[in-house]
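Before relying on records like the one below, remember that each one covers exactly one chain. Contacts with other chains, cofactors or solvent are not represented anywhere in the record.
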Amino acid sequence: MLSEEARQAIAQVKKADIVVGVPSYNNARTIGHVVRAAQAGLSKYFPQLSAVIINSDGGSKDGTREEVLKASIEDPRLLLLATPLLPVHRLSLPYHGIPGKGSAFRMIFAMARELGARACAVVDADLRSITPEWMDLLLRPVLHVGYDFVAPYYHRHKYDGTITNSIVYPLTRALYGLRVRQPIGGDFGVSGRLLVRYLERKDWESDVARYGIDVWMTTIAIAEGYQVCQSFLGAKLHDAKDPAADLTAMLQQVVGSVFTLMREYEHVWRRVVGSRPVDLFGFRFDVGLDPIPVNLERMRHAFLSGCRELREIWSLALDPKTLEELAAVCRQAENQPRNWRLADDLWVRILLEFACAHRRMPVERGHLLRSLTPLYLGRVASFVMETESMISAEVEERIEQLCLAFEAAKPYLVARWDSAAQAPVASARPAPVEVKT
């Protein structure tokens, strides 16, 4: 899985206690800052350890790799309290395989294993809020406390991370019983033994190689009993997007990964009742956040289009009662553009029924996952209208209520999951789903 260029770099560096990976694609504007912050953090907090920063690039055309190689701290005395005992190497290498973030991670992990790294951190290349302290927060729990996986904990704008807030966090929390707030956060720390476990897996050529990588890593760490914690990183300021932007592929890959892992780890989540907190490192504080533009009318239009065009495929997944309630919400959204709601209870049942249909109908999985996009946009639009006047703390409490609704529905999931296992495989072949957002 390593190119000749990567092997030559390993031969030159020989060994590293710490590896910091920065996957990138056309991030020349921000990646220099990310690399300098990582270099400063490694020199300040781990001067006695050897470290290497690896940029795993997906074919950037904007000079991203050049920015990495020329990034340096102009005057380290302004930033550092400890004089680095060992230099921090910087490498920029192209990755090969399926285009996507997961393939970049795979190369970083493989190099970390070859270098004998005790800990590895990965951070996004489009970050504007990263500081040198992030290195300490992501790596120290692994190096000095014995944790295997350090998930990020951020302050984010109330409409940033809507896939996390409305689907992935509530569902993974209810399934596996740990309150990991950002299971697809993008920035994390991992132990040497856990990255070896990731590399042993055989599913790197699936959606894991694309947008599914973050939740895949988090789920494996939790479900297989590795030691998991969180670190508070402050704000996450990055190139955020309107929730109504084109996201069908991302949603399909992330949710598809969650549903696929549900089959593998059924023996784990069936036994879980409720949830418990996860250790949190770092000092929590309030920070200013970038506003997130939200196009409510665009989301409503996508939801109504789905209501008109996708009822046939939704009927493959949804219980008739759920489908009837959803039809009532569609009528309300049509007639009252600013005064309709897709309630928690209905949203929970929709997702759990889709998860069971994903198990029951392997041939139709692609159609089912693509058809989720209008439903997701309808839920986000409903949530935005409900929380427009709320402050961040109130919105977080609202998300907590959704999480508790998922946890309360666990018996419903188990019963329906068992029914899906006994049902014959569906052979219906509806027309291909094309979702326009």
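The radius of gyration is 22 Å.
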